[in-house]
Specification:
The complex is a heterodimer of chains A (221) and B (478). With 221 residues, chain A is an alpha/beta fold. Chain A is built from six helices and twelve strands. Chain A has helices at residues 2-14, 35-45, 58-69, 85-94, 110-120, 170-176; strands spanning 49-53, 77-80, 102-105, 123-127, 130-132, 137-140, 156-162, 166-167, 186-190, 195-196, 204-205, 212-218. In chain A, strand 5 and strand 6 (137-140) form a beta hairpin. In chain A, helix 3 (58-69) crosses helix 4 (85-94). Chain B is α/β, with parallel strands linked by helices. Chain B is built from 23 helices and ten strands. In chain B, the strands form two sheets. Chain B has a six-stranded parallel beta sheet, with helices on both faces. In chain B, strands 8-5-6-9 form a four-stranded mixed beta sheet. The chains are: A alpha/beta (221), B alpha/beta (478). At the A-B interface, helix 1, helix 5, helix 6, strand 9 and strand 10 of A face helix 2, helix 3, helix 4, strand 1 and helix 8 of B.
Chain lengths: 221, 478
Amino acid sequence: MSEARARILSRLRAAPPSVAPDRPDWQPPRFGDQRLAKFRTMLESWRAEVHDTTAAAWPETLAALLGTKLAGKNSRTVIHAPNTVTGQTLAEAWAGRSDVPVLVPYIESVESFKTVLVQQADAGVTGTVAGIAETGTVVLWPGADEPRLMSLLPPVHVAVVAASSVRDTMADVVTEQGWKDRMPTNVVLVSGPSKTADIEQTLAFGVHGPKEFVVLVLTDA
Amino acid sequence: MAETAAASTFVERAHKVLGNTKLRGNFRRAMDGLMAKRAAQFADIAAWKSLRARGAAAKRRVLARLPELLEQLEANCTANGIKVHWAETTHEANSIVLKILQDHDARTIVKGKSMVSEEMHLNAFLQKHGIEAIESDLGEYIIQLAGEAPSHIVMPCIHKDKGEIAELFTRHIDGQPYTEDVAELTDAARRVLRSRFAAADAGLSGVNFAVAETGTLVLIENEGNGRLSTTLPPLHIAVMGIEKLVETLDDIPPLLSLLPRSATGQSITTYVNMITSPRKPGEKDGPQEVHLVLLDNGRSRVYADNQLRDTLRCIRCGACMNHCPVYARVGGHTYNAVYPGPIGKILTPQLDGIAVAGDLPHACTLCNACVEICPVNIPIADIMVRLRREAVHPSDSPAVMGAGCKHTATEAAVWAGWKKMYASPALYRMGAKMMQRFGNMMPGGMPLLKEWTSVRTRPVFAKKTLHELAKEQGYSDV
């Protein structure tokens, strides 16, 4: 096996050297006080739904939204991650209420939770670690408490974003949050619902992932 | 395979497809749309230039340090728990993938889109060994149903219209009524593939960028099938060419700002999926094992030549195809190669040899449209000319397999005579006089001329040479 490795590397080493050029200056765009507006416009251009709300009121905003979206569905199952701030806030706010969808915690491994995820879940609610204005993107940072598939398998994905976490560009987020020293198992940048244009360049949504992408912007967080 | 692939040479295949008005319509419409969308993304020319310079530099830096960066990537991936494999040939890569799958008793795998796996002809290989590989990218799924190869590296079924796709779905999907409604067709694919994802024993993907600094695999996509393939099954195998590296995480934002905008005119893909390790203790999902297969397949030979090395900067956006006047008219299958279009015309002869793909560098008008829009500034036209020359007049470089195989004594003699004539005023004048007197008497069907005149109007030689005309105008000593 490592014979291939040795031969490939020795061929590469035997090649004539070339000089590594410096990285020329490149200035990513700046949006100043238009940052949040840009974030919203770009997200909407991807057909995401953006709602301004607050750290205290968002579970109520979500209940009303999903009430409309999931009307007519029997189960109305929403997946949440109870050990995250987002999941905990939601669980506390919806506790004991019958006018909201059923909250199902994603706390077991996918092997036993697969059927719920693949077939039953109507929506998944996750937190985010940042928003990116330039491209209308939210950054998911899944982990032990917030599994990866809850933002992918249910037909609706709801992402909760603190307005104060929105930056101009991806470069800003990567640098400011020091990603290079702390890359987790998986980071996902999401810009809109799942889509395809493979058939005659005609846009269609929800080909594999969520058909709808809802972003709740917490203006006071 | 595609119907057009049956004929033997590029010219024969091109002639056949040029008469297919439906196919030409499909490509023209798609290419016009893609060019307009890309242009809108890079309307600010100064910003485009500085971004492209940054992207090209990032990839040139990788090539300058390739062996050490590969070792760094391997070390970091290994430390993160990703198992790294090296393959010199596509057969070796296939065998590595098969071994991993057999070790896990895997019978079915779901695939995200990967051009390297096309290069390996992995699906056919696995099928021979009793393993079913299911393409899950909608375009790839469609052409897998049709039993065809991709005709574009970003939009694999761009050659098909919805009527053809509707028929395919009706034939292959149980209970699927005929519909040309794109949303309904998409829903049908979602339904079928959802259950395949849930039942798959492994997922396979390509890699858009591998970050040496952190050992991270970056995958971009719009559909979510890439995320599913790399998250839901218990085993993930990624395959990548050894050139698909970047040095640092900081190189990712500028390259991400170039790739989707160049490819489809969107400022970013729906998903940018960054994978750094298999599932860690306590995590609820993600594959238990992640394997990375590094494929050479001729790349280290190309790397040995400082000019040809630039080919390895390619980030596979496909923009060169979208802007190529030849590609737009003949479509991807005419190239009979995994990588069609301008980049394919220079990459294929370098990977497979000039004896196999030597006609491809000639399927080009040298209009330079691809060079103008290439996001990493690859001098495609210069390399095209270099490969044309290598085919008949090999250089000392060992990088080109089959160099010189198109050399013929007749052609060499013609060029030698031409050179002599142009170097001597007396001979030149004599030659011009001869053509003036006797040129029009040469039969168009004579050997050497025939190939040219069979598709072009034969030129009529002028009654007077330029020299004579100049003299009449009063210019002397010209």
